[in-house]
Write a structure and sequence with these properties.
This protein has five helices and no strands. Helices cover about 55% and strands about 0% of the residues. With about 120 residues, it is an all-alpha fold.
Length: about 120
């Protein structure tokens, strides 16, 4: 029974220290800061699980509708090119400072449902 108590206290102290660390704000989570491997892994799992849970019911719009494609291209030009670039765009003011470097979506194939 004594070992169970020691394990419980150890876990409680570790949890308390973890919460204290998170609330201290001392870890730089900025997009221009290199992260610990564990942090990268946690962010990736959080992103993927969030997309799976909240994006599962989404329906990809018809990509053969030229009006929607044109509207999407305009939205991409306005909101995405700064980080994800576009055909013929080699760099932007933002991309060198971002970590991890966002993929160049004009050169990377992503499943439309995942992207949407």
């Amino acid at each position: 029974m004594k070992i169970i108590g020691v394990i419980f206290v150890t876990v409680a102290v570790a949890a308390f220290l973890g919460v204290l660390f998170i609330y201290s704000g001392s870890y730089n989570i900025g997009a221009d800061a290199h992260h610990w491997p564990l942090t990268n892994q946690l962010i990736g799992v959080l992103r993927d699980r969030s997309i799976a849970r909240h994006g599962g019911e989404l329906t990809v719009p018809a990509l053969d509708d030229s009006t929607k494609v044109l509207k999407g291209a305009g939205q991409y030009a306005a909101m995405c090119v700064g980080c994800h670039l576009a055909p013929g765009v080699k760099d932007s003011e933002l991309t060198p400072g971002l970590y991890p470097m966002p993929p160049n979506l004009s050169r990377t194939r992503i499943d439309p449902k995942v992207a949407f």
